[in-house]
Amino acid sequence: MKTIGSYVALMMLVLSFSHLQAKQKNVTPKAPWCSLHLLNFDTDSSLLVLEKQLPELALKGVNVLILEVDYGFKFRSHPELRGSDHPVTKKGAGRLVKACRANHILLIPQFQCFGHQSWAKTTYPLLTRYPELDITPGAFPQNEGIYCREWDPMNPRVYDIVFKLIDEIMTAFDADFLHVGMDEVFLIGHELSPSTKGLDPAPVFAQAVNDLYDHIVRKRGKQMLMWGDRLIDGRVYDYGEWEASMNGTAAAVDIIPKDIIICDWHYEVRESYPSTEMFLQKGFRVLPAGWRNVEASRAFINYSLALGHSSMLGHLFTRWSSQREHLAEFPPLLENASLLKQNNYE
Fold this sequence. Notes:
This protein is an alpha/beta fold. It contains 10 helices and 11 strands.
């Protein structure tokens, strides 16, 4: 009987441990983040394609995935804002979360906020269904004459809707982090923007950041990432109007919380990347980001690692492509991930 009792106790311990493993939360990587940004995985079947590639990605050193979800989710709070008839479901998201954890990969969903509410002539669901929430309502037919549509950050109805969408995504992906986008915003203060015309763009942009921060971090207890370009003063740093701000938003950098993770993206070879040091000096954690240029990615990684700063998180390989296969063969990742493996600056 003692043997049987011991066996039962052992089995209970094993089952308990298995249960804990199944319920384990995301673990933030201790080593430098070797992160990959992905988009166009907007159905459960496409998530299965991604899931099959996780072991190979992990083998290459990837320990963080940032998955741009946007409107490609089966929202229950606002089903009219689903981007397609077969979007990602809560079940599909949960399966991917488990697969990422099994491969020791932190999964961070992204919901693109403020800007990037259209592409070419296609306007995305929020401003299609609720055109009155556009920062320039009724202007720019077929999106001619602008880069992308933007929502009106001054209209509280925007957040009544968006916070529900964000909550659903964070819950489905059991997320401890959320990337909110916020890049390439150009229409604050535009003469065709009734709510922001004549206003200082910096406080307007900062308020948009802070509203999201209050919900995601203060209310939900999560961590927030955003792109950094609108916080870089293009008059001080010679990056141009895309990688830095020439439209007055840069001063917002001093009136937003410093525990936001800034994804500082630059895609070309440069001798230095002074914005990265600027963000670090102001107290932010920084995740530098490159794109398809292998040499530029290598230069940025080497530069940022050489700073030896404890708030330097690693590197983000962005892949602005609809291709879903062969992710581990993306040349910048394939050629440069080893630079991050070789460095641990904790």
